[in-house]
Specification:
It contains ten helices and no strands. It has 208 residues and is mainly alpha-helical. The chain has two domains: 65 residues, Orthogonal Bundle (Arc Repressor Mutant, subunit A), CATH 1.10.10.60; 133 residues, Tetracycline Repressor, domain 2 (Orthogonal Bundle), CATH 1.10.357. The termini are far apart.
Length: 208
């Protein structure tokens, strides 16, 4: 696992961990939160429960995080950055070539779906500015890589960048809808519609 100092920004932490021991504490907090999310659900979690699960005084937890929402945002940030990294690596392998968008989008959905705790907190965080900032940043990063992957469209660079950002934003919206759906069959239906739409856009812009 990547060190927390490489994952967590100032969006959720009160104190940015500099020393190894501090990073380990933050990692323990996130691991404890994940355990509680999977076992008890997000609604039943509070700061005292997280501190107990992490085996540390509540004061230590509050030293790093203001409240449980801040902990949830930090956990979401770790997941988003891990998935972004994997996506960027996959897109980089196909630069200048046609992408299998269906498999790519299915893999993206499954990566978020399998990330410990992420689906549990997503419905609670959708309305928080912290998550919106994370997703906006994620979409901007994805758009940069996607612009390079779409060079075979032979469109002006500014237009490619615009298309890449719009696709990144749209895919994120579809993913959120699918991930917040309790019925897995219905969630997969959202993913399939997303695959069809993105593939149709790909065909359209190749002809442009």
């Amino acid at each position: 696992m990547t060190d927390c100092i490489d994952i967590l920004e100032d969006t959720s932490l009160r104190v940015r961990p500099q020393q190894k021991r501090a990073r380990e504490r933050v990692d323990r907090i996130l691991a404890a939160t994940t355990t509680l999310l999977e076992r008890d659900g997000a609604e039943s979690i509070n700061m005292l429960a997280i501190a107990r699960e992490a085996g540390m005084p509540a004061a230590t937890l509050y030293h790093y995080f203001e409240n449980r929402t801040a902990v949830f945002v930090a956990l979401a940030e770790r997941t988003i950055r891990d998935v972004d990294s994997a996506l960027s690596q996959q897109l980089a392998l196909v630069q200048g070539h046609e992408q299998d968008w269906g498999n790519l989008l299915q893999g993206l959905y499954e990566a978020y779906r399998m990330a410990p705790g992420y689906r549990k907190i997503l419905p609670l965080l959708r309305a928080t500015p912290g998550l919106k900032e994370l997703l906006d940043e994620s979409n901007r990063r994805s758009a940069v890589v996607l612009t390079e992957a779409l060079q075979h469209f032979h469109l002006p660079q500014a237009r490619l960048a615009r298309i890449a950002l719009m696709v990144s934003e749209a895919v994120q919206c579809f993913l959120d809808m699918a991930l917040c759906e309790d019925d897995e069959e219905e969630a997969q239906a959202y993913v399939e519609e997303m695959q069809i739409m993105v593939q149709a856009l790909s065909v359209h812009y190749q002809k442009a």
